[in-house]
Amino acid sequence: MKRIRFIAVAAVAAAHLCHALEAHAGAPVCATTINRTNLIPCALEGSLTAKAERQGLEAVKGRQEAASPVLPSNPVLALSGARREAAGQGPVLNWYATISQEIEIAGQRGARKRAADAEREAQEKAVAVTDREVAAAAWRAYFEALAAREEVRLFSLLESLTTKVATATRAAADKGLVSGIDADVAEMAHARVVQDRIGAARRVEQAKATLLHAMGHDPRGEVAIEGELVPIAGVEAFAAKQDGHAIDERPEVQALEASGRAHEARASMYRRARIPNPTLSVFAQNDGFNERVFGVGLSMPIPLPQPVGRTYAGEIAESEALSRRAQTEAERTRRALRLDLAHALSAYAALRAQNELYTAERLGRAEQSLRAIAQEIEAGRLGTREAMTSQQALLEMLRAGFETRKNLALGSVDLALASGYPLERGTP
């Protein structure tokens, strides 16, 4: 018996362990490594803004459930008793029992349900908008971190190369081959690159802290950031397919339209609430001297005109005005989205054209030429001033190539957000 019990306990423990391992395996690894695969799941999991919107959706679901009961109120049971005596009669116990129920006859429940359904739809679209904005912010932080890392690598390379140029120029100045001023200029150019490298190292830490903060982790923590500084795949093709009808499918527009329908349904609910709800009752009593009485009753509120009574005129006017405002906001959002898409398409096309100027082959030749400047100075085939001019031009070219790649990656995020690309789903 003990052996069977031990086997059962071991089986249960093994099942729980397997379940825990499966859950851990399915969870995104956010604390140690961030890449394109787990970036968006980690950002959505750690975002308090997205969490708050989902909690708002839970509240709307509760409001939707509150609108579902068929009866407007619970039945009311009234009981009363009395003792009656008369001359020549013994004491008699009189009792009275009444059960009553209010009934809606103007469709108020349907109006409440339509309002709650529209509010839920609006909140679901708001969750989608928030998730997309959180994903866009995560992509920007990710690209900034990758760019800062590459910037450090670039300036470390430039620092090494300008060190050789400055050393060669100073050696030539010591031999009297060039002016000491040229050596000072070369050293100042080197110092400027070192300063840029220090600034890039600072930006690496800031970008990493921003990315960790977006993931919900300690900004001072350590994390491995994997990936290349390339745009989000498929964004430009997706944006090119968007037409005027696609704007109507955007969650930003649909949330406002659903909000307008919710206000209109609420106005309908208030209009229906003007119609009095009858209350049906059934009663039984033992009256007088054991006289049994049974019957039914009907009661109806008497509506009075405002301001004496309550006609919900203010609530109706408010709800209708809010509905019109939501429709106006939806149209304003459509216009803004069309403009944002036009701007994002033109900006991304310009960024892509700029990036195509700095091909990998051209940047590779610039790096090789920069490496060769120090040797050319030592060999006497290149004058110091010409070397400084060439070095500055090559440095600017490498920097420009880096900046165009960074701007193109960030521009893909802007284009994705402007075109309604489903960033919250992660990388395709």
From TrEMBL:
Q: Which UniProt keywords apply?
A: Signal
Q: Does the keyword Signal apply?
A: yes
Read off the SUPFAM superfamilies from this record.
Outer membrane efflux proteins (OEP)
Residues spanning the signal sequence: 1-25
Q: Which InterPro entries match?
A: MdtP/NodT-like (IPR010131), OMP_efflux (IPR003423)
Xref: Pfam families: OEP
Q: Name one GO molecular function term.
A: efflux transmembrane transporter activity
Keyword DNA-binding on this protein? no
Classification via PANTHER family: BLR4935 PROTEIN (PTHR30203:SF24), OUTER MEMBRANE CATION EFFLUX PROTEIN (PTHR30203)
Q: Which family does it belong to?
A: Belongs to the outer membrane factor (OMF) (TC 1.B.17) family.
The protein, known as:
TolC family protein
Query: What lineage does the source organism belong to?
Result: Bacteria, Pseudomonadati, Myxococcota, Polyangia, Polyangiales
